[in-house]
Amino acid sequence: MKKIAISALTALFLVFGFTGASSAASTTYKVQKGDSLWKIANKHKVTVKQIKSWNGLKSDNIRINQVLKITKPAAKSKAKKATAKKATAKKAPAKKTAAKKTTAKKKTTAKKAAYKTMTVKATAYTAKCKGCSGITATGINLNKNPNAKVISVDPKQIPLGSKVYVEGYGMAVAGDTGGAIKKNKIDLHMPTQKKALNWGVRTVKIKVYY
């Protein structure tokens, strides 16, 4: 019985040993005397270019007993997966950039929309009218600054200090008040009486910026 058991173990060892050797042999080849890359390639049904690539050979020179890989190394597939993951990681910031651009557009839109539109009746005045000091309610000296774009407003409708765009007049500052200036009425400062008379009374649209 012992002899039979030993024989069986020996047989198994030889079978598995041979299989392992065959597997190793199928993936590598030891260079023999008289071998060339062309011969080895033909023998294993691959190309010279493939053998050189798999073994990192820069020339066709080989030496006796040199072990060459004759099949494509499995490690390359892992390298490709790693490269694909890196490529995916590189693409990710593009989404963040797009999100930043969208946020920037929203902020710009919000800034542009920071005003209210009103339709008002606009009259005109000069700093040199009777009883006028030439100094506005906010301290602007119109005598020293005759070309200043200043309008009188009702502070309940338009806060003093606001920037106001007046149709036909331009950008101005709400820097003065007046007893007759109530609700949707404004009074525009003009550098001369002639320009004030030419303006007259007009119904215009204005934009009050916050």
Secondary structure blueprint with pairings:
Elements: H1 2-27, E1 28-30, H2 37-43, H3 48-55, E2 67-69, H4 75-112, E3 115-125, E4 150-152, E5 163-166, E6 170-176, E7 185-189, H5 193-199, E8 202-209
Parallel strand pairs: 3-7, 4-6
Antiparallel strand pairs: 1-2, 3-8, 4-7, 5-6, 5-8
GO molecular function: hydrolase activity, hydrolyzing O-glycosyl compounds
Domain LysM: 27-70
Keywords: Signal
Classify the secondary structure makeup into a structural class: alpha+beta
CATH topology of the domain at 115-209: Barwin-like endoglucanases
Fraction in beta strands: 15-25%
Shape: rod-shaped
The quaternary organization reads as: single chain
Mean pLDDT: 81
Number of extended strands: 8
Helix content: 40-55%
N- to C-terminal separation? 105 Å
Strand order of the largest sheet: 3-7-4-6-5-8
- CATH architectural arrangement of the domain at 115-209: Beta Barrel
CATH first level of the domain at 115-209: Mainly Beta
**Uncertain segments of ≥5 residues (pLDDT<50)?**
1-24
Order of helices and strands: HEHHEHEEEEEHE
Number of separate helices:
5
Corresponding CATH superfamily of the domain at 115-209: RlpA-like domain
Rg is: 46 Å
InterPro entries: 3D_dom, LysM, LysM_dom_sf, Resuscitation_pf_RpfB, RlpA-like_sf
Signal peptide: 1-24
Organism: Siminovitchia terrae
Domain LysM: 27-70
